[in-house]
Structure prediction request, 617 residues.
Amino acid sequence: MKTSKEVAVSVKNIHKEFILPQSKNTSFKQSFVNIVKKNGKVTQKVLDGVSFDIYKGEFFGIVGRNGSGKSTLLKMLAGVYAPTEGEIILNGGLTPFIELGVGFNPELSGRDNVYLNGALLGYTRKQMDGMYDEIVEFAELSPFMEQKLKNYSSGMQVRLAFSIAIKAKNDILIFDEVLAVGDEAFQRKCMEVFRQYRKEGQTVILVTHSMDNVSNLCTRALMLEDGKIKHIGNVNEVARLYSESNILSQEHEEKNGADRPRLEGVDVQGLELMYDKNDVMELSLSWKDRDDIYGIGISISNMYGTYIFGSNFKDLTPKQKGIKHKIKLSLTPGEYKLNMATFDASGDITHHVQDVASFHIRDDYDITTDGLVALEHEYIVE
Amino acid sequence: MGYLWSLLKPLFLFAILYIVFTYIIPLGKDVEHYSVYLLLGIVLWNFFTEATVIGASSVVARGDLIRKISIPRYLTVIASSLSALINLGLSLIVVFIFALLNGITPSFSWFLIIPLIAELYAFALGISFLLGAMYVKFRDITYIWEIVLQAGFYASAIIFPLSLVPAIYHKWFFMSPIVQIVQDARYAITGNDQPVLWSTVHSWAVVVPFLIVIATVIIGGVYFKRRSKYFAEDI
Prediction:
């Protein structure tokens, strides 16, 4: 995967504003009324001064949370929207796959739909003739090509559409969120093709929410936030920033919500949102107003509810009103839940509350560790 | 199947109007080959209505494509007007058969219908571009256009012979490209003595219907081109 320094796409300081009509102005009549009434218009800035270059042979990832402007950016690259300000220079042909199966007609046969879709994407009949067999083969649909599309299952339709996308050839290809289709075997095939692209030095722009794809496939990535470039460059850095921004905003919402379960009368201090792998979590628990606590238990489970670790301390007396708990977090990256319990004098559980808090282990997208826990390990190359 | 229906629609209208204006109100009794005259007028008018009405909504109707891919936007309008043009071709075959049955001998003047249809197509296309682009923003434009068409049907002397109108008003009728085209076409096919532009207007005003066609094509084309950048976000 050699990337030359020849620019394939040059985005120069683009701005995009959408006009949000204050009143419904979708008729001639209304526009006359509005001249008289002088209704104001509100503009929404979706992209605010975005500039970057994509070089030939790059597998370029674009990430961003919903509303960050990435779809708008993509539509401008595809020539669907015109920028309000700035310009986009393309060096070579570009085929966008913003949505799969554009223009598919259920009344036509699978074969005709392949040609129709190809024509809409700008391919000539001859070019499609050259690609047709490969498309059908990739979709594994050769016995069905003369059937009408309406008789296909939805999975078959998606497969056909995706095969057109993946077999289409052009200088620059754009894919938007298309990896999440088909069954596992088909997805594997697609990843195979993407890896092939990367090896061959095909210029690809991939918009995705999957940070695994970004760190595994892309050679460079861009993160958009509120219509501006938050970071551009190293894929692992972009993946880390994106995951963090997702987690932090989610956490923000949860903190505002008072519906988080609590262990009555027990105050928890010292919990952080984000830990690095092998950090030590230090929790301070205190219960000033309760004198029935003879033991306390803390456990951790992962997002799928799998119980990972738990420990109980049952040697408390009612006079003791607090305890510090240190746990070394030998966990793999992801989100975890904290559960708590209290015990009475005879060692039986009095209260057990799940999901009192959640925390994350930061994903650095550098070292590949997987599984439930991160055991200490090292490799020695001989 | 679709073509059969598109032939039947003007034929039914023709049958009704023919019965009404031949037996009930005999408007056409003085016109040679009135039935051919009437049918040809209906077929041409029908093309104009079909092309402009479908053309007006063609951009919005293809909104799903326009929002997703950067196909040249004018193709949506061209495609819908071409399908109307194909229907017109089929209808004209019926007109020619009908003319032969009516005892009209074919002549070279029949070929004049080709430039006339080209002019009519250009006019319809110009209007379609204008309306198609406007319809993206103003969704009531099709209602307005249908009213204009209704008035146009009578202003274009489709069902009645123009000779029924007092001669001093003829020149005003001929300022409309539709009247000029329809009357010329009728003359080219039937060779009857109904007024045409060339026999009515003798001043510089003879170019007005053609100027209107050219202006419509330019205005429609320029407006469409200017607006088409914003179709994807406005639809």
Q: What stands out?
A: The two ends of chain B are 32 Å apart (CA to CA). The CA atoms of residues 168 and 200 of chain B lie 9 Å apart. Residues 34-61 of chain B form the longest helix (28 residues).
